[in-house]
Each structure stands twice: as C-alpha cells, then as structure tokens.
Amino acid sequence: MTEPNESNTALEMAAKISKGDIHESTTKQENAPNPENVKEVEAGKSGKIHFKPSEKWRIMKNIVVISLAFMVHFTAFQGAGNLQSSVNAAEGLGTASLATIYFALILSNVFLPVVVIRKFGCKWAVAISFIAYMPYIGAQFYPAFYTMIPAGLLVGFGGGPLWCGKCTYLSVVSEIYSELTNVPAETLVVRFFGIFFMIFQFAQVWGNLISSTVFSSGESPVLSTNVSEICGTNFCPGNEAQENSNMERPPDYQIYLVAGIYLACMVSACIIVALGVDSLKRYNEGVREGSGTGMSGFRLLAITLQLLKERNQLLILPITIFLGVEQAFVGADYTAAYVACAWGISNIGYVMICYGITNSISAIATGSIVKLTGRVPVVCCAFLLHLGILIGLLTWAPTPDDKILFFVVTGLWGICDGVWLVQINAYCGILFPSREEAAYSNFRLWESLGFIIAYAYSMYLCAQPKIYILIALLIIGMAGYLVVEWQERKKLRKKADQ
To answer: From the CB of residue 413, how many other CB atoms can be counted at a distance below 10 Å?
Structure first.
C-alpha cells in the first residue's frame, strides 16, 4: 500500500507556513538562535540573521537526513500495508483497517496540521507523527478489530501533520538556501523535493524485501498449482478458506519477526529526526513576517467545498477518485487475487518491489517527457496502457508458472500510476491559479475517498466486478479530463485572438 499523495499535495499549506502564517513557536526566547549557531550566523542592523555560506551544507544535511527518516519509516508502513489483504484476510480485517486509515486521513488533512505544527514545530510534528504510526505495527502481534481499527485511526490522524510538517520544513530551508546562493526559492523547492523522493521511494523496495525474505525462510511451502478456477477474476473474499495452500497465513513467528523489524524501523526513524534534524528555530522561523494565524480547518473545508461549484473541478473528480481506487486495488486486491492466490503470500513483496521501482522511475521521467510532448499525449498513453492492463487482467487465469507475468503487470501498473499521480496532481494546481490550497485539498479529499470506497467494497465483491468498476472510472475520468483540457485550450485560443 502507498501513502496517498500527501507529500505533493501538502505543498500549498507548506507555502503558507513557510511565509510565517503558521509559526514554529510563539515566544522570542524559543525563537532565538541556539548558542552553538553564533559562530555560523551574523546579525545585521535590522536584526535579521545572516548565515555564513557554509550553512548551505548544513541545510543539505538536514534534507538528506529527514528524507532517510521517511524512507526508514515507510519501509515499515508500506511493507505492512501491502500484506494486509492477505495476512489479515479473515473477515476483511486488513482492508477494513486500511479503509479506516484513509477515513481518518481526510479529517487529519483538514483539521490537524495547523494545530500540531503551531504547537510543536515542524521537526517535532514529524517525530510525533511517526510515533502515531507505531501502534498499527504493534497491532500485527495481535490482529483483531479492536486493535487494528483504533491503530488505523491513529495512523490517519498522524498522516496530515507528518506530510505537511515535512513539506513546510523543505519550503522554509529553501528560502534560506536561496538567500545564500541567489537561486530562486521556487526552483530550490522542486530540487529539494526531487532529492526527497529519490531517497523516499526506496521504502517500497526495502519494506517488501524484508517481508518476502522472512516469509521465504524456513521450509518452502508446497504451492497449489490447480488454482486457475479460484484465482484472478474468479477470486472472491473467502477463497482463502478453500483448498489453496498458497493463501495460508504465514506462521506466527514469521509475522512477529516482520512486525518486530518494522517496529524497529519506525523507532529508528523517530530517533533519526530527533537527533539528526535541526529545528526551524535555527532559522528564526517564529519571528518571520506573517499573519501569525493559520487557516482553520473549518475555513479550509469551506473553500474546498466552494470549489465544487466550478465545472472544471467537477469534471476532474472522476479521475481523482480513480487514482485512489486503482492504488487500493493494486495494493490489496491484485496482491491477494493474483499474486498470493496463485503464487503464494511470500512472493507479494518481491512483486511489489517491481511496482515501487517503475513507479519511481515513471514519476521522475514524466516531467522530462512532458516538456517534449506536452501533457495530453503522456496522459493519453497512460490511459491506453492502463486500460490494456485491466482488460488483460479480465482474461488472465494466473498460475504459479506465470512468474514473469506477475512482475510485468505490476511494473506496467507502476508506470501508469507514476503518470497519473504527477500529472493529475499538478494539473489541479494549474487549473485554479491563486486557489491552489482549495484545489489540492479537493485532490486529497476525493483521492482518499477513492481509497475508502475501494477498501470498503473489497471484502464483499469478487475481483471481476472490481476490475469493471476500475474500467468504468478510468473511461469516465479520462473523458472528464479531456473535456477540461479542450475547454482550457479553447480559452487560450480566444485570448490569443483578442
């Protein structure tokens, strides 16, 4: 499972915080530079702190360290999330906990970031949010509805402050770095986010590698080979109870070992941030110019809903919901109905490593390709490729002999997903200039709703109707997107003619 696209979509709140609308702390004493900084900074007559050129290396160190912390943390969370639909398949417990996470995340994104960051500052908001994820891993030692659901709520509530705190941190240090290098802050924010994602995306690799390595150790299970009648499109919740050894839950000691490793990763990530990342107090964030008041959750919710009156916003909603549904499908339904059912639970991690790698490469490469071809051709290619994958899944009856095909499907899906997340996310901001905060808030809201819907019906529908739902959402969503592109180009032509 992947964390929804909060890292990109928190940028609009990060910009507000970095301008001083949300303060790192509230007292002058707290915001004074630390004594050890005296040799590294100089105070001008205006009282503004001027850093020595060597400070840029410390900023780069902070960016790398916080990126490593996120990678280590999400090594655990993403690795655990990808296993929920198979390891905790009984009564739909795993997918129910995932739906709970995204329900709480919607509320968290709207109401918590401003409060938590104002109270604790960005550094400690990130560290505390890391802690909020730990009970979910701890619940793997005793998975039940009364342990997993409350733990899922905590993860969702921690997600909003976590991603917004990270985005704010990068935005603030980019301004300081800009003063030292005379490079525009907007350019540096993009560069710093590129560094972050280059490191962060390895979480999908390490998390899945840990689970598959542990589950593959010990005695090799005897795989059921006659599974074509119950796997793929024929897979329904409850198939794990049939005579299919591929779906047998790994031994408890292996699950406990994986959960223990994941929990150690999360503790390590918290320690890395606490000891290795400088507080924004160092950069005098608390006395930066600004209103001193962040946008309240109710205000953000109001402007988010107001944007639904816009025709373009309504037209772009289906493709946004599709993004949530398709990510939930590949992380929960594909791994259970195809990989685990036909090839064994121990191979889920290996297959999802391929997804993580191609998704990362696609997200990075898409920007360069769009500069050459434009946005529409790239999105159309992703549409045709994704449609072809879904049609292929309808006709494929997977068996343990289809090893290469499992990787091909997830690899191609990762390419499509990289295009969708980057291009549709960015397009939401382009469509509503000066109203990016509401646009990105809508993106978060409807993408998260897609996750919730997919996880909610996951425990009741068979794989075939789920794929048909994806195809319908993809076609409707693409139609709406193309209408918006056509309308916007029509407006540009009218302006050019005037």
So the answer is: 24
pLDDT at position 48: 55
Nearest to 396, CA basis, from 338, 459, 313: 338
In terms of Cβ atoms closer than 10 Å to its own Cβ (0-12, 13-18, 19+), residue 3 is buried
Q: Please give the Cα distance from 26 to 127 (Å, whole number).
A: 20
Q: Is 295 left (phi over 0), alpha (psi -120 to 50) or beta?
A: beta
Residue 463 near residue 236 (C-beta atoms within 8 A): yes
Nearest of 109, 7, 104 to residue 421 by alpha carbon = 7
CB under 8 Å to 374, separation ≥6 — which residues?
Answer: none
Contact 468, 476 (CB under 8 A): no
- For residue 179, what are its two tokens? 């003063």
Residue labelled with tokens 């992703």: 382
Note the maximum CA span of the chain.
Answer: 80
Q: Report whether 348 contacts 95 (CB < 8 A).
A: no
pLDDT at 123 over 60: yes
pLDDT tens-digit series, residues 174-199:
888 888 888 887 778 767 877 887 78
- The whole-number average pLDDT for the span 454-461 is 90
* E strands, 301-397, in order: none
354 within 8 A of 414, measured Cβ to Cβ? yes
User: Under DSSP, is residue 43 helix (H, G, I), strand (E, B) or coil?
Assistant: strand
Beta-ladder partners of 42: 50
What is the spatial distance between Cα 63 and Cα 70, in angstroms, rounded to a whole number?
A: 11
Tokens of 295: 């946008």
The token pair at 145 is 């509805």
Residue 428: Cβ-neighbour burial (10 angstroms; 0-12, 13-18, 19+): buried
Give the separation between CA 196 and CA 60, rounded to whole angstroms: 11
